[in-house]
């Protein structure tokens, strides 16, 4: 078992291990979702090799720029776990059949994710322009905005309460915040990419971290509302983790399939929906630290101060079979290569996944230790 | 203005004219949907020429087999009205914000249609096999089945009531009936195709007939429940009619774009959802008489008693620019050509649309006159 697999397995084991350790009691509530998700994992694992022939035949494929081989790798295979995710979500909907409000929110989240997958797949097939990449998640997040019935107030940090009061009612600005979160999550994953297994790997680690957070909050059971919100979020994340795992099996180094924009949009939207419905969007952003760093690095090229090439991959050296830093590509990947020197792609992807795990751990530390200073 | 345009314009004017004539009072309830739908019509009309370049570039196109020209016609343009339909539906959702149950059903219908569009577009791009054509609408109709909260009993015709009682509770069988309706509607439109403007034209006429039925039932206002159901159905159908019209502008003879499986699935699912949520599925099937006839003609080839070719188009005669009957293709189109002799494609499509309108009129006659014998 190589290091990459160890990192991924650890991530998946973490919510369950920590849940068990802290005395999580609600296994019976999530058990049907786990069974359904495990089934969809098996179907996805069997289906990807079949559908990859169809995507290749449809012209959805490209060569792996970090390899010697000129062989075409099938693209957009994210459509398989994404579709199976929707099927799982639809079937698991009966879990909330008794709680009308939760079911409605669950349903709206599924609609948002479904619409995002449709738009992502359109983007893969039709190669839409850049401006649509900001428009599409905005449109797709609308179902949830309309359905959102929670608070639109934010709690003010302790030191500012004399000035601003205990909380600020944001109203419509809160809807704007939710849209921006959806737009950020989808695009942040999309631009932190280019190494085998990175898109699916990072999404899986973030999903596991968010699920761990759900299990902790469900166990703490501060009040019934928070309990329900985190249960809802967990039922969005469990099928996501299993289906992403099926894709990662084929996408990790050496990639047999590419995930496509379909997957990046799907993953970003699902995580954003879980954060919004679970009411832990600030904590979610803590798990996005690598993506935020990559976004900050990318700003000069995103807004056009520095010219932005079509791909911002590292340079592949076929002699040594390693990737080298390209100083004009402002990404976290190139920054890591600049710090460490040339790396084999497999090691680099493992390192980036480990960095993602460390950032999530840091996120938990900030959420449960440092935030006390500001909020309690 | 040619005959085809007259037929389509008449269909669209019909619900509004009849609504006005019978004293329909709820214009203010549907006015926002009409405005939103009219806007989406304009956007769709502008967007189709842009997106058709992208679909062609993506390899989604084929030559028109009923023409002399070898020029490639862009395929799958149904994705444009379908996506705009979803946007309209999501934005119009606020109309039902006060009625939780109606909003939930509306939302579930949107999810079903969205999932169907996703699967339809996948089918267009990936050329899925025949067996998926039955599986996909089954999966896509699940959100509505889970959300469906109405009656699962059917009223027994008068002459059988001594034997069976006033109504029969179908329970789970009713869910099966709803799935079969969705599967039938999507595939029935898909196989009654092959002539310029027929897929979009027939769907538009059926949509207008169903909307007319909604307006009649809303005006009759037998009870609040039936009133709400038909209002819900109308708000599903109005954006459908407008968006389909935008597509039909380019799809009618001579076709500048083809609609693709995306559109057929989208149209079938939307009509099925409207029928289920409006609780008038039997009346809806009356509007599907041409599709039912075409399905009955097709049975020998569908179940494989008679060999079934890939396309079952009429034969094009370039000398006379007409279409001729092919006796081995068991479709309604070929039957019409066999009765009338060779026809120009434009006349044939107009004739088939007029036949669709006549069947809808017959449907109304059966629903409001003949059914009295059985049910009152």
TrEMBL record, chains A, B:
Pfam families: Glycos_transf_4. Pathway: Protein modification; protein glycosylation. Keywords: Endoplasmic reticulum, Glycosyltransferase, Magnesium, Membrane, Metal-binding, Transferase, Transmembrane, Transmembrane helix. GO terms for biological process: dolichol-linked oligosaccharide biosynthetic process. CDD domains: GT_GPT_euk. Belongs to the glycosyltransferase 4 family. This is UDP-N-acetylglucosamine--dolichyl-phosphate N-acetylglucosaminephosphotransferase. It comes from Blepharisma stoltei. The lineage of its organism: Eukaryota, Sar, Alveolata, Ciliophora, Postciliodesmatophora.
């Amino acid at each position: 078992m190589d290091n990459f697999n160890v990192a991924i397995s650890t991530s998946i084991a973490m919510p369950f291990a920590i849940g068990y350790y802290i005395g999580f009691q609600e296994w019976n509530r999530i058990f049907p979702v786990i069974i359904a998700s495990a089934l969809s994992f098996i179907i996805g694992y069997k289906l990807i090799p079949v559908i990859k022939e169809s995507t290749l035949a449809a012209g959805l494929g490209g060569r792996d720029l970090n390899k010697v081989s000129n062989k075409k790798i099938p693209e957009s295979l994210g459509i398989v776990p994404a579709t199976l995710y929707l099927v799982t979500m639809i079937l698991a909907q009966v879990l909330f059949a008794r709680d009308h409000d939760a079911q409605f929110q669950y349903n709206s989240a599924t609609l948002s994710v479904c619409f995002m997958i449709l738009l992502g797949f359109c983007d893969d097939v039709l190669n839409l322009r850049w401006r649509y990449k900001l428009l599409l998640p905005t449109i797709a997040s609308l179902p949830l905005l309309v359905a959102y019935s929670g608070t639109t107030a934010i709690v003010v940090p302790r030191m500012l309460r004399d000035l601003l009061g205990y909380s600020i009612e944001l109203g419509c600005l809160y809807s704007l915040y939710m849209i921006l979160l959806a737009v950020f999550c989808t695009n942040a994953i999309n631009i932190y990419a280019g190494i085998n297994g990175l898109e699916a790997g990072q999404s899986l680690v973030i999903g596991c971290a968010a699920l761990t957070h759900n299990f902790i909050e469900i166990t703490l059971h501060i009040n019934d509302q928070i309990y329900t919100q985190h249960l809802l979020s967990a039922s969005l994340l469990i099928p996501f983790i299993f289906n992403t795992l099926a894709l990662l099996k084929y996408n990790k180094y050496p990639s047999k399939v590419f995930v496509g924009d379909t997957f990046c949009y799907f993953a970003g939207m699902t995580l954003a929906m879980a954060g919004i419905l679970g009411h832990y969007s600030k904590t979610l952003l803590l798990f996005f630290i690598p993506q935020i760093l990559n976004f900050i690095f990318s700003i000069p090229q995103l807004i056009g101060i520095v010219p932005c090439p079509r791909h911002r991959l590292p340079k592949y050296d076929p002699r040594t079979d390693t990737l080298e830093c390209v100083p004009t590509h402002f990404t976290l990947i190139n920054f890591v290569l600049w710090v460490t020197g040339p790396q084999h792609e497999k090691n680099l992807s493992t390192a980036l996944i480990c960095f993602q795990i460390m950032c999530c751990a840091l996120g938990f530390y900030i959420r449960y230790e440092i935030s006390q200073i500001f909020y309690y």
